[in-house]
UniProtKB/TrEMBL annotation:
SUPFAM superfamilies: Class II aaRS and biotin synthetases (SSF55681). The keyword Ligase applies. NCBIfam families: PRK07080.1. Keywords: Ligase. InterPro entries: aa-tRNA-synth_II/BPL/LPL. GO terms for molecular function: ligase activity. The keyword Nuclease does not apply. This is Amino acid--[acyl-carrier-protein] ligase.
Amino acid sequence: MDTGTFSAKSLLDDLFDNGILFDSGVDGLYGRSGVFEEVIERFERLVTRLGAPDKATRIHFPPGMSRATLEKSGYMKSFPQLAGCVHSFMGNEREHAKLLGMMAAGEDWTELQQPTQVALTPAACYPLYPTVAARGPVPAEGLLFELSSYCFRHEPSQDPARMQLFRMREFVRIGAADQVSAFRESWLERGKAMIESLGLPCEVDLANDPFFGRGGKMMANNQRDQGLKFELLIPVTSEEKPTACLSFNYHQDHFGQTWGLQFADGSLCHSACVGFGLERVALALFRHHGPDVNAWPAAARAALWDA
């Protein structure tokens, strides 16, 4: 794999040609080779080693979550364009025959499906907050969790770094404002050092989420003005527009208010999360070091294979 300048499409074709990813016929939905999965597994071990001193509580949620939880979280207000919900056939035999007839005729049969109570998880941390709130008051020292989940965002693209189904690894800190701010600052330093240890060019920059609509522009500006979101950027498909591979987010007391996350004295908790886009980091490694992992730079191999 040439490590020169790539367009998103040419990088995707190169990944297909080298048997690293496999085309499914749907943009943003790909099969992964064994070596691609091994790189992700080894990167996750590196993240685990880096976060081990913090002694976070590990929780793994499935890629689906309660639709009611998604609605209450405010996600649909801010990112309706990215959300996905699960629909299923709930009809009788007569309706089933109709469905089969519509399929045979090449007609749209999805009108015979109805929404279930399941939504696709948009970020690994979303199911966490109501789970923690249900346990009662947060201790004075706060809480720290380590999460992992497949996530879904509806943004089909031939940019391989913009998959519709992808994995996120997150650390989430819940506590007082100073506690969560210190947590984020610590990971801003650790995250950058970790990526640099893999021989990847990167920079940390102020960012904002893709809030929807005209009102979303104001929300994005507010997020940037308050310094609530930073991203670690690596050139993957573009030097001019590098890809966000890690994100560092301070939610203030948004989830505290939404879910009633409180300390024993009734004061609201703040939260922050650090997210690792696992596929994106793997893509960055293949983009910069080539398809043969045995030929990768010694420093990258030492960090992933030898530690």
